Amino acid sequence: MAVLEKIRKRSLILILVIGLALFSFVISDLFRNGGGLNSNTSSIGEVNGEALPRADFADEVEYFSRQYGERASTVQVVNQVWERQVRSMLLDQQCEELGINIEKDQIINVVKSNPAFAQDSTFLNDAGVFDEEKFIEFIADLRLNNPGAYEQWKLQEDALIKSAMEQTYFNLVKAGVGATLKEGELAYKLENDKVDIRYVRVPYNSIADSLVSVSTGEIQNYIDNHKEEYRDEASRDIQYVFFEEKPSDEDDAEIKKSITSLLNARVEYNSATEKNDTLPGFRTVTDVEGFVNANSDIPFDSTYVAKKDLPSVVADTLFSLGVGQVYGPYKEGNYYKISRMLNKRANGSVKASHILIQYAGGNRSNPDVTRSKEEAEAKAKEVLAEAQKSGADFAQLARENSDGPTASRGGDLGYFTKGNMVKPFEDFVFSNAVGKIGLVETDFGFHVIKIDDKQDVVQIATIARQVEPSQNTINDLFTEATKFEMTALDKNFTDVAKEMDYRVRPVNNLKAMDELLPGLGNQRAVVQWAFNEETGAGDIKRFDIPTGYIIAQLTNKRKAGVAKAKDVSALVTPIIRKQKKAELIKEKSNTGSLDEFAKSNNVSVATATGLNMKSPTISGAGREPKVVGTAFALSEGATSGVIEGRDGAYMVTVTKKTEAPAMDNYSTYANTLKSTNRNAVNSQVLTALKDAAEIKDNRSVFY
């Protein structure tokens, strides 16, 4: 009691101490993460200096995460919300700069132009026309009598105004996009001017890559001349060793042994009675369900199944068991199993189709059904007569007449066992032969039924034990991973892995918002670590994941900007190699003759007719815009020099040029071009706005 009294007297001091400790913890964590009282940690990013509030962003991420559920990862949702908010802010900035606005008193015009409101019967007058007064009265009523719904309307109103402003902006841009008659004429000529050629193609792959060397300097020079094509965001390279938590051979054998021991009776000491009890085994136990549930990782299933529903590897064996017989242990996936035949039913599964004729007032009848019960019965009898005719297409009759949800698939109900249908329906299908067509009445209406097939079914009890790593195996793996990690911290990561016979897996060019590692799936934590400012090249870290351990090393850090030669060598080398091969072919074939060019390169002369500039594709060679463009620049009968094509070096001779006949007016082509250009405005404008904007992206800091 004295101790308690002292605690009570000093409770204020304790509270202060605890509070200061918590405060110091939060502050230290804040600074440790690059924060501070003046750091801008409330912004998920900036667009032209304007912040995207983190709280608003998080709310939207949470909303869409609930919408998508497991269909999208957090990073996928974050990326979608980011694109939405950046787009929204860019357009808001443009509308503000241009003075585009929709005032509250103009909202009625926005509503009238929205089909969701303009076609809603609530707001239509007797003539079927949108009535402004009805709409205004409806909103006023919400404000007075349903504040919650009114708040929802205000949010919707804001969204409508925003959408209308954005559309106004796009319409202004589209108004400045057109096409002149001269551009229409050009489009016409690109499509309809034709050229016929004889050509020779020397594929680049006819020259071995080993004969053409490409230096790092040449790659860098190419990049310097094409900087915009090789600008990239910041990236990281890592390598890792994965220690997978999986059962050992000993674990596998132990699970098999334990499940085998359940087959026969066994003797166990009962401490309560101080006697040995003989416990029944799976072969002879009478309470099979209780035995399975007490000993299996998968609960007892009383369902009768057809042979096709059994595991394919053991289906024949299981299905042929006699009642009471046991099979196993056998392995399916990562489970060891033993199975016992409980019962068999001949023709215990039926496949049937039906045509449901409903009537008003019937159980779950469609509201659109107005026929009486007597009318429904009369129609059902008519359909039955049609279905029973020789050669009748039952599925088509179902599609045309059935009121049931299976009408679209021809009335097909699939296979089912007893207990899954209402009794009159079930009695008919299980007591009649395959092919029988009859009429049955249930609470749902009148059913014209066809029995399509029957199968024998069995009831099998199965005990399953999952093969999992034992605690010893888990401990051993932890020890192995720790030993590798500690050794790699002091020595070369790759050399240590080689010495210990572990596979090193490199992952290059990781971006800040990546989340997937090849073979491991979503490993966002690894990517975040790699992009942490405090993580340096060569650093090593262990990550505990549900399936084991990842020991990762950061091997390279790249800043945003123009790529270095070593990073894009695989992309640039083939381009330069093609250029060099084209030069080799030119040097080898120092001739202006098409036939001699073909002969010197051991290829044949081919022909192509009706080529045009709109679709510059050569039959047998593929898309070659540079080659086709060169042909159009030549006069009829002229031969080109060697042309560097996409997949080979070419030489062409123009055999015929056909100029499209002049038109009196090219407005049709001009209008088509204008329409095409305007349709592309929305996406192209957003791309241009993004390219011109200064966008700061902090997503990877928070997600």
From TrEMBL:
It is found in: Cell inner membrane. Residues 347-453 form the PpiC domain. SUPFAM superfamilies: FKBP-like, Triger factor/SurA peptide-binding domain-like. It holds the Pfam family SurA_N_2. It is a single-pass type II membrane protein. One of its GO terms (cellular component) is plasma membrane. GO terms for molecular function: peptidyl-prolyl cis-trans isomerase activity. Keywords: Cell inner membrane, Cell membrane, Chaperone, Isomerase, Membrane, Rotamase, Transmembrane, Transmembrane helix. Transmembrane segments: none annotated. Belongs to the PpiD chaperone family. This is Periplasmic chaperone PpiD. It comes from Sinomicrobium oceani.
